[in-house]
Design a protein that fits this description.
Elements (H helix, E strand, L loop, with lengths): L16 H16 L2 H10 L15 H8 L3 H16 L20 H4 L12 H13 L3 H8 L2 H10 L1 H15 L3 H13 L1 H26 L1 E3 L5 E3 L2 H15 L8 H21 L1 H24 L6 H4 L2 H27 L4
Antiparallel strand pairs: 1-2
Helix pairs in contact: 2-4, 3-4, 6-7, 8-9, 10-11, 11-12, 11-13, 12-13
Length: 343
């Protein structure tokens, strides 16, 4: 006897009407986002200047009471729709009637017009929203952070990447904010750790600048202050050190590299001077004149108008020692003049 095998029933089970309704509404919202709720407000809340006897629409306050939410929330949807209508994306309020459906823009566009924070309508909120748009993020995210500085502080303290982002943002802002510049400067000088760090970075920057100047200008300054054309090998060495420093990552400490490059270039400059007899003599002559000018200026600044009031024997003794030292120096120079080939 043949037994018939009935295949299993694979037809889908009936879908609940409530489930189907939820799915349809979810799909509509997925396509349109906040526009779907914006439309409900736009077609049911009467615009300003329109009386209750002119339209079946209700006030934002009445709509909020019916919806079980705040009037402020309703008005945020209202204002978002109003801005979009001014841009021609959706119909104006006056063109809409309760229950009327219209074609809605894509969901992603909604975020350009709606911000969910109550501070978004203020000048501060507008500035934050515009900055967020420039960075390519949702205004709601930036406004939420701005309204919760404690959370921002916690993220900066706990997460190095957040701290780096905050540092970069402060640097971008400080360039255009003199008040913030002054506040940060005060914070630095009042914090020993920061003051030491700034001093170290400043020293490294000066040393890198010294090496960069040689590499780019092709000139060196001797210890006595002479400016000379750098020999080719010395300039190449400066370029080599500079390329190593420029290849460092932003978060790498350049201090040791700067010190090595600076010390190397300083030594090479001294060697360059010492290797040339004529240059060596000129360097010593320049150094002597520089020291003589400094000593002369210091002595000329001495005043003797009130000497009776502060006179001490030690002062005369030291001046007499100086006089003897100057006399020896003069005799030495006169002797050198007599031995000079041109003397």
């Amino acid at each position: 006897m043949t037994v018939a095998i009935t295949p299993p029933d694979t037809s889908p089970a009936p879908v609940s009407d409530l489930v189907a309704l939820d799915a349809r509404e979810f799909g509509a919202y997925a396509r349109t986002g906040g526009w779907a709720f914006g439309l409900k407000v736009a077609r049911s809340v009467r615009p300003g200047g329109q009386g209750a006897d002119e339209t079946p629409k209700v006030s934002a306050k009445e709509f909020a009471e019916l919806a079980g939410c705040s009037p402020e929330r309703v008005m945020r949807y209202y204002k978002a729709w109003d801005r979009a209508a001014d841009d021609g994306l959706v119909p104006h309020f006056e063109a809409l009637a309760p229950g009327q459906d219209v074609e809605l823009p894509d969901a992603d566009v909604w975020l350009s017009y709606y911000v969910s924070r109550s501070g978004a309508g203020s000048e501060r909120g507008t500035a934050i929203a515009e900055a967020a748009a420039a960075e390519g993020i949702r205004p709601t995210k930036a406004l939420e952070v701005a309204e919760n500085p404690t959370a921002l502080r916690a993220a900066i303290l706990a997460d190095p990447s957040t701290a780096r982002a905050a540092r970069q943002a402060l640097l971008d802002r400080v360039r255009e904010d003199p008040d913030l510049q002054a506040e940060l400067a005060r914070d630095v000088v009042r914090t020993d750790e920061l003051k030491k760090a700034v001093a170290g970075e400043s020293r490294a920057a000066d040393r890198i600048g010294y090496v960069r100047q040689i590499a780019e200008s092709g000139q060196i300054k001797t210890p006595a202050g002479q400016t000379l054309d750098a020999p080719a090998d010395l300039r190449q060495e400066a370029e080599r050190h500079l390329s190593l420093i420029d290849e460092l990552d932003e978060d790498e400490d350049s201090g040791e590299w700067a010190t090595e490059a600076y010390d190397t270039m300083k030594s090479l400059v001294v060697e360059t001077v010492e290797a040339d007899p004529g240059l060596r003599v000129q360097e010593r002559r320049t150094k002597f004149y520089s020291s003589l000018q400094k000593a002369t200026k210091v002595f000329e600044e001495l005043t003797f108008d009130d000497t009776p009031e502060f006179y001490e024997d030690d002062m005369v003794e030291r001046l007499e020692e100086l006089q003897r030292a100057v006399a020896v120096c003069i005799e030495s120079l006169r002797g050198a003049r007599g031995n000079h080939p041109e003397g």
